[in-house]
Amino acid sequence: MSLAAELWPDVQPETARRLMLAGVESFAQRGYHATTTRDIATNAGMSPAALYVHFPSKAALLFAISRSGHQQALALVEQAAASAESPPAAMRAIVEQFVAWHARRHLVARVVQYELGALPEEEYAVVAGLRRDIERIVRDLLAAGVESGHFHVGDVGTAARAVLSLGIDVARWYSDRSRQSPAALGREYGELALRMLGADTTA
Amino acid sequence: MSLAAELWPDVQPETARRLMLAGVESFAQRGYHATTTRDIATNAGMSPAALYVHFPSKAALLFAISRSGHQQALALVEQAAASAESPPAAMRAIVEQFVAWHARRHLVARVVQYELGALPEEEYAVVAGLRRDIERIVRDLLAAGVESGHFHVGDVGTAARAVLSLGIDVARWYSDRSRQSPAALGREYGELALRMLGADTTA
DNA sequence: CTCCACGCTAAGCGCTCGCTTACAATCCAG
DNA sequence: CTGGATTGTAAGCGAGCGCTTAGCGTGGAG
Questions:
Q1: Do residues A111 and A69 make contact, with C-beta atoms less than 8 angstroms apart?
Q2: Minimum CA–C1' distance nucleotide for A12
Q3: Phi, psi at residue A13, to the nearest 5°?
Q4: Phi then psi for A189, rounded to 5 degrees?
């Protein structure tokens, strides 16, 4: 199965997926505004006008990429949070999955994390909602862990931000030539995060 | 003293500083490629052509901002590293200063951290060198602290990346409306970083 | 066999971009 | 008083941008 089909199994036809993949690569490497619709179409092996058969605008293509990426990240965090018993175990699972995703899908993640400012207002509001959902899960879990004595932090909001920063910033620096696999990086970061939160890391 | 004169005391005349400040604001909020030279000039209260009296190109303006910002950040880290005795104390000082700078100068920091991809090749190489200097200081200090038993981490390179990520990502989310002052945020993050590195935080 | 919906292209429109040119105002050295 | 350096403006050039239009090929329903 192609990477495009793996990332967006519900997008049809396959040409639309190829355009999305070409968009991801260009947006991640050069940025949204430095990418032309001709770049994207050429990269997808089509004429410039083909983009407009499947997407009403360049911004709509960005939105399709960004929304789907945010939904994936949110689903990942939700599942990790629900899969564990104690707050430390849940937090470790979240960080492992969140970090591994940002490494494994670092091109998509780069668009998700750093190109959302280019979205039109309405579309931005949609992804901003998904981002708040992710942040709330982490913050609530952290607060619950502090309440139960599993975590010890000065300020819950600040510590939650710090945990998310560790994951988000991976999208900025991770590349295909990075030494560690996404999974190994996730495990390493899970350990770092738990220690940062004052948790017993044997949990 | 104006903010522009505070940030770039050695830039003359004052009009050039106003252009740099207008560039910082535009680049930070909309990104380099979404900013026009007309935006910058208008924001600085001048005609579009005035930019080219002081800078040979839009990219040269970005470079002036980016290089000076990187130099400031490097100087900050160097001084913090030299100011403390033990590795934990030095690391705490570095994180406090690095984080506080990214918060207090979050517009400049945003351009520094997220717009360097827009630099021409030669100019990029210059700031890339400054970035490597910063990374090396943190990595070497961390390695020394592991050697001396002050720090306990799985992989030195990964942990160094994580420490820097905490600071860099501040530029992405910090705003003038953030609850915590830059200094307070720095202290909070200093504590989080030391715990993450397995250090005795009473140091 | 017909015909139309779908997927795609060739050509190009109108606009804005980074930047240049020609020129004006100010100021200070000789 | 003169002349050049400095600092600015008004006007606009050529290029590349996002996107539109008109039309072509193809495959499946009737």
A1: yes
A2: C7
A3: -80, -175
A4: -70, -35
Distance CA B183, CA B103 (A): 9
Question: Which of B:131-170 have CB within 8 Å of A?
Answer: 153-155, 157-159, 161-162, 165-166, 168-170
| Cross-chain CB nearest to B31 (options A117, A159, A191) | A117
Backbone dihedral angles phi then psi of residue A46, each to the nearest 5 degrees:
-135, 175
Amino acid found at A156: V
List bases, strand D, within 7 Å of protein CB.
Answer: 6-12, 16-22
Alpha carbon dihedral B117, B120, B122, B127, in 10-degree steps, equals -30
- CA angle, B182 as apex, B176 and B185 as ends, to 5°? 115
Residues in CB range of B31: below 8 A, 6 or more apart: A31, A33, A117, A118, B114, B115
Q: Tokens 């910063």 correspond to what residue?
A: B134
Q: Return the structure tokens found at B177.
A: 């409306």
How do the pLDDT tens digits run along chain A, 203 residues long?
677 777 778 877 889 999 999 999 999 999 999 999 999 999 999 999 999 999 999 999 999 999 999 999 999 999 999 998 899 999 999 999 999 999 999 999 999 999 999 999 999 999 999 999 999 999 999 999 999 999 999 999 999 999 999 999 999 999 999 999 999 999 999 999 999 999 988 76
Question: Which residues, 6+ apart, have CB-to-CB distance to A21 below 8 Å?
Answer: A3, A4, A7, A44
Q: Say if A68 is an interface residue toward chain B (CB within 8 Å).
A: no
Phi-psi bin for B109: left (phi > 0), alpha (psi -120 to 50), beta? alpha
Q: Is B166 helix (H, G, I), strand (E, B) or coil?
A: helix
Task: Tell me the pLDDT of chain B averaged across its residues.
Answer: 95
* pTM metric for this prediction: 0.94
Which residues of B are less than 8 Å from A155 in CB distance?
180, 188
Per CB-CB distance under 8 Å, the chain A contacts of B165 are 165-166, 169-170, 172-173
